[in-house]
């Protein structure tokens, strides 16, 4: 696992945006061989999305031949609700770039048959040839997508019930009341994310420091689903100084040293 430590959120976002731009350009995607990108929601990726929009506007990248799969969506929230992940993605990325509508995939949390919707999503990923780069955030409880503590580390796309922790954390988007946060979500599984060729996790802020510590120094455990990244051959975490509060000084120094020449 690579751990990139940036001084602050702005630099972390810039690093992540550049990384994605370089990956897309290096793949030289075509309609026949598009670049398959897994995308997160939440506050963590907003800075990176701004960087991607800027890169597009400056002509440094095109999303014409990029196919996207989002990580998750709430169950039962209307698609046009301001806090749905459909709305989030439109506002924070898709409305500002040239990614064709038909290339964008987001789980439908209002599907008549939610189980079928999840199976269909896995099929679509498979049919696309798998995900080249899956980008994710982490919840304060170490969840990746909506794979809450206790999720199977080999899970695939399915329905999950959200923990109180997550509903409290996300209540800031729902008028501060955890009861307004949908109780369930559709989410790609830990196994779905880990099947990607590469996984890039964004982790910023003091409230993520316990999750970062568990991800980097702890054992692989279903109680911190992000820890499964330790088993991935190409896992990267890009974090800021504030998120490093709980990792050992030696761990911090080690990653700073090994990454010095890569920056
Ligand atoms: C949400 C999302 C996750 C996200 C996490 C962190 O619950 N389902 O995919 O990584 O919360 O959110 P934030 O980036 O706002 O801290």
Highest CATH level, the class? Alpha Beta
Number of domains: 1
Question: Shape from CA axes?
Answer: globular
| Arithmetic mean pLDDT | 97
Could you name the ranges where pLDDT drops below 50 across 5 or more consecutive residues? none
List all distinct small molecules, including ions and cofactors, that are bound in this structure: 2-amino-2-deoxy-6-O-phosphono-alpha-D-glucopyranose
* Number of DSSP helical runs: 8
Q: Strands of the biggest beta sheet: in what spatial order? A: 1-10-9-6-2-3-5
Protein model, in words:
This protein has 263 residues and is an alpha/beta fold. The protein has one domain: Rossmann fold (3-Layer(aba) Sandwich), CATH 3.40.50. It is globular, with a radius of gyration of 17 Å. The mean pLDDT is 97. 2-amino-2-deoxy-6-O-phosphono-alpha-D-glucopyranose binds next to helix 5.
